[in-house]
Design a protein that fits this description.
- By secondary structure, the protein is mainly β.
- The chain contains 2 helices and 11 strands.
- Helix content is 8%, strand content 54%.
- A hairpin with a 2-residue loop joins strand 5 and strand 6.
- The longest helix has 9 residues.
- 22% of the residues are buried.
Length: 162
């Protein structure tokens, strides 16, 4: 967890008080015109051109598996998992390989955007409902851009119950 110190001037005492602000880094990506983010502590690698081996008798959102340097990694299509229409994979489509609680998992996304820092106090909760089960927070980057935080633990727990 990244921490940053801010100087705050106490108006009554005219003295500088240092306050630690907790920040986290997030990798942002796009899926179906929505911007999502995952905490960078989970990100292992971003793959831009990797063959996916399909598997029989798995949910539609499981695109298959990849062999990454001898490690077999299941691939979840985030677009399909969220109930959106599939698209043809393009040049910007990539796989974000995550490691959550010692479990490796790849997520197939439309494109990767950037890494952003956000104060933990600025993360807003999301309304709890079935559609938002994989989103555990929101960050407002600017007046026109809201990022949805992907709940990586929920994604892994869900895959373990398959």
């Amino acid at each position: 967890m990244a921490e940053e110190t801010k100087n705050i001037i106490d108006a009554d005492l005219d003295e500088v008080v240092e306050v630690e602000v907790e920040k986290e880094r997030f990798l942002t990506f796009h899926s179906d015109e929505l911007t999502f983010a995952v905490n960078t502590k989970y990100v292992i690698e971003i793959l831009t051109n990797h063959a996916i081996t399909t598997l029989p008798m798995v949910p539609d959102y499981i695109k298959g598996i990849i062999n990454m340097r001898g490690q077999i990694i299941p691939i979840v299509d985030i677009r399909s998992r969220l109930g959106k229409m599939p698209i043809d994979y393009g040049d910007s489509t990539c796989i974000i390989v995550l490691e959550i609680d010692s479990i490796s998992l790849g997520i197939l996304v439309d494109s990767v955007s950037q890494v952003v820092d956000s104060e933990l106090s600025k993360i807003s909760p999301v309304p709890v409902n079935k559609q938002q089960e994989l989103v555990n927070g929101m960050i407002s980057l600017d007046a026109n851009n809201v990022v949805l935080l992907l709940d990586c633990e929920q994604l892994v727990n869900e895959q373990m119950m398959m």
